[in-house]
Amino acid sequence: MTDTFGPRITGSDALEKSIDWVIRKLKADNLSVTTEEVVVDYWQRHQESLHFLSPTRGPVPMHILGLGYSVSTPDPINGLEAEVIVVHSKDELEQLGQRDEVRGKIVLWNNPFTSYTENALYRAFGAVWAQGHGAVASLVRSVTPFSLQTPHTGVAEIARIPMAAISVEDADLLERSLNRHKQDPETFPEWPKVKLIMGASTELESKISRNIIIELKGREKPEEIVVVGGHIDSWDVGSGAVDDGAGCFIAWETLRQLSRLERPPRRTVRVVFWTAEENTSAGGVVYARNHPEKDSSRHVFAFESDTGVFDPYGISFAPGTAKDGKKRDSAEFLTAAGEYFMGRREDLGYPGAGRHVLPNPFGADIEPLCKRGVACAEFVPADPFPLPYSTSPYAIKYGTGNRHHEDDMQSMVKDHNNGKEYNPFHNYDYQNNNSKKHHHHRSRSSNIHDKYRRPVDTGYFYYHHSEADSMGAFTPDQLKRSAAVMAIWTYIAAESPIEF
Q1: Which of 105, 423, 432, 459 could bridge to 385 as Cys pair (CB 3.0-4.6 Å)?
Q2: Side-chain-side CA neighbours of residue 118 (13 Å)
Q3: Domain 2-40+205-495 in CATH: superfamily?
């Protein structure tokens, strides 16, 4: 799909052709598939460029990507020329604005990567803050911990001035130039100046896209739904393989495998490819509105993959809300289930891969369900670039360093269960949602399996919203192993008789 149709920005023909292709393939798999329409916005990039004019050797091309919902420069063909002022916080902008030092300039937010949550704030709101002080445009250092002159785009709040992301290297170049001018204005008399051209346009609520829904009816409780999926749209750079084509495809493979069981799980498994996640999450909002919770049909577990499919690590999980308003106590059951089904396996990338249960999931498409009290989970891959171990296809392999723990892994589950196999479906008090045993082995097994592994963190953002988002970011084996882990967790949620 990604090779054939390329990136799938919301509102584009490429997205809708990809959806049509997926539907054809699903029907060929004899799976039950429907769609639901979603009204979406259509933002288009068009022509864009940035040149460093002075003080330098001449017009030097810089590396930018316009941000979603950006307007064009006042003259989309000839652009605008302005001096650049560098800021690192909203407070710093406010102080400069009070001295009227921002008016007529391009504001550059140059903040080294600390976390996506923190740095994305400047991408999202930088232009809105800057326009209030008379800035003519807003540039933001790309939200990434690593760069090879690779800008990273993303959505931003609608502003009156153009806004774009700039590569890490170019952001630092402009700041160095400004610092030289400030420190020695006689030797470096020129303030850094650039020329920005952007022809971006937005058509609000102008297109119809679709969520794709695939369903496997439960054998005993078809009214109880385990929903799992990813988002089918992407940004308009790269090919949208990491974010989030792969997330959709491992959910698809999950349903294919579950449909081949001799008997389906107790609960209904529903796979959704949500549309328009990248700009408004309209697909998730429409899905939640079209599928309210009622006695004849209610969600018991929502599971999303939207942080890549490198080697699997596990899930992050938040329990659902009971009728009395209290959070259910189901995390320990899932921890035991993950240990039982994956704790001793070695065929999922590394020993114990996929078994972890972490707190605080986030998924933009399942967020409306989470807010209604549905138990929610997020697929968590291992970070592709933790040192000294890397799961990147391009990394030099030195080995996992934890093979000597094999004997401990084989005996781990039996040790804590008096030498007997531990099955979470049997060793659980379903009526009270309490495990019949205390699982003191959890911290020990974590030390055994994960010496060189950590849940996905900065490595995902090497690729995120950039030209680097392609099939080359992961291997076919990693895709298969991630699908296997998603299928196991989905089966656990759909087969278990407990309320999560």
Answers
A1: 459
A2: 10
A3: Zn peptidases (3.40.630.10)
